[in-house]
Amino acid sequence: MRAGLNRQLGLSMISLLIGLMLGLLSTVAAMALFRTVVQNAVGAQDNLAQDSVVSSGLLTAQLEVQKAGYGVESDTNNCTAISTASPEPSGTANVDLVMYSGAAMSGVRVTGTTVSIDPVQKTGNALLWRWHEAGADRCAGLVAENGGLQFLERANCPGLATAGTIDWTVTPLIPDGRLQGGDAVAFGARSDLCWPYGKREVPDKGVVLTLAAGNSSAALQSEYTVCLPNVCR
Q1: In this predicted model, what pLDDT tens digit does every residue of 124-152 receive, in sequence order?
Q2: Under 8 Å CB-to-CB from 54, ≥6 apart: which residues?
């Protein structure tokens, strides 16, 4: 009787193997869960970094482009006829603010096809503008290509009529390759009455500009709308 009891209390090989298998499966499941958590955390961190770069680049672009047309003495605009304020020096759309499609950098020069800015919304991938400061005409621009965004500067600017011959100082705002396909930076522009910063009681002359780019959310875009009151239609 005692010998029989001793045999029933011992561990069998099958029980040991089943226990080892269950432990192994639990370990594999825990490792898979850990890997998924790490991948999600890294992906979220990468998305946050990209969104920060895109937002910072578009914000800088928005601040810079607001200089367009400031202080420019132009005989080709009709600001005086439509402005509700006292006539002031202002630039002209398609002369002191020019948009391009199919634009690209060839060294330090810009190539592309001009897109007429008029009351109908148009789109492009580059903008060049002129303003007057400290007794001299200055020019700047934005070119979106190769999944990035470049900021262009030129002091003592000869004017945008010969924009293809201007040698620019180029500063990356969004590194190349960050945005692809439909996420790439795009510009939209139309001539329209608008309120600078939304604070004027009466609309003034101007150009309404949009700057947009994709972000980590497929359903949303980072987008800014800017009123350029110093550019006449």
Answers
A1: 999 999 998 888 889 999 999 999 999 99
A2: 174, 178, 179, 213, 214, 215, 222
